[in-house]
DNA sequence: CTAACATATGAACATGTATTCATATGTTGT
DNA sequence: ACAACATATGAATACATGTTCATATGTTAG
């Protein structure tokens, strides 16, 4: 990790291009923003979660049905659903012993379908 | 990992909802598609790479400038750039000892800006 | 109340990944 | 040819993450 002085008017580096660095820094997002953006994509960055989210795109499903559809164990699915629930990407409601999950974020629906389109057209 | 029988017309399970599972399975994406989609999002799922891609959104930069802008070591940046290069998310050209990197995928530009929008509006 | 069931969760394990350090590769100027 | 430089890369380390197993929680039917 390098720490470089880089004020508005005085930029003293060796190899780098001081002005460009200064401008680019101002246009760059903050650490915390980058972290938050990465957090969302990280959740979309696992095949199991992609499959879960994709099937929830079509309809609300209960846990055991999700597990059956994507052919994974109930526990694995439940753990992943917890992550998605915490990030508010899925909504869930209890109905007796069943827990019904559905997509809870139109942004994510859109990101997901863009991701799927992306790999289909290339 | 559970493996369940699930043909077109005969669905025999215990707790699950057979018809829904059959329909949902047909609408679900394949393992390899889910894998590929996850691969893309996984690349977007790291704060360092988010920052790199975001600064490359604005302009082409050389490695040492990227490192200076995002305040990371040259080696770390270079390693990440290799991943992005292999996935063809960034283009690069050599100019003497310098290597200039730029965004090479409009889909990714769009995904990235959607991701950034998403965390900004909530 | 009890048994059967659906879901959630903690612990353990294996695997993947990001950064750092040291060094290699390849270029430029002298 | 040599020194300075920009970038790339292999190895090592530390850390994060996904799945499984066992079990806990909470609900329904009898």
TrEMBL record, chains A, B:
Residues 29-122 form the HTH arsR-type domain. The keyword Transcription regulation applies. It comes from Pelosinus fermentans JBW45. One of its GO terms (molecular function) is DNA-binding transcription factor activity. Keywords: DNA-binding, Transcription, Transcription regulation. Gene3D superfamilies: Winged helix-like DNA-binding domain superfamily/Winged helix DNA-binding domain. This is Transcriptional regulator, ArsR family.
């Amino acid at each position: 990790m390098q720490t470089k002085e880089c004020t508005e008017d005085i930029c003293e580096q060796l190899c780098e291009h001081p002005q460009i660095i200064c401008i680019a820094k101002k246009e760059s997002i903050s650490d915390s923003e980058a972290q938050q953006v990465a957090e969302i994509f990280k959740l979309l960055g696992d095949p199991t979660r992609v499959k879960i989210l994709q099937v929830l795109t079509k309809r609300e499903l209960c846990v055991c049905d999700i597990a059956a559809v994507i052919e994974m164990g109930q526990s694995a699915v439940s753990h992943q659903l917890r992550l998605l629930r915490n990030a508010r990407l899925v909504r869930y409601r209890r109905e007796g012993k069943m827990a019904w999950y559905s997509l809870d974020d139109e942004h994510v629906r859109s990101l997901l379908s863009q991701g799927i389109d992306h790999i289909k057209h290339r």
